[in-house]
Amino acid sequence: MANGREVRLPIKTTGADKAQKQLGKVDKGLGRLAKTAAKTAFAFLGARMLLDGMRSVIDAAREQELQERKLAAVIKSTGGAAGVTSREMLNLASALQKQTRFGDEAVIQAQSLMLTFTKVGKEVMPDAIETVLNMSEAMGQDLRMTTIQVGKALNDPILGVTALRRVGVQLSEQQEKQLRDFM
Question: How many other β-carbons are positioned within 10 Å of the β-carbon of residue 74?
Answer without folding.
Answer: 19
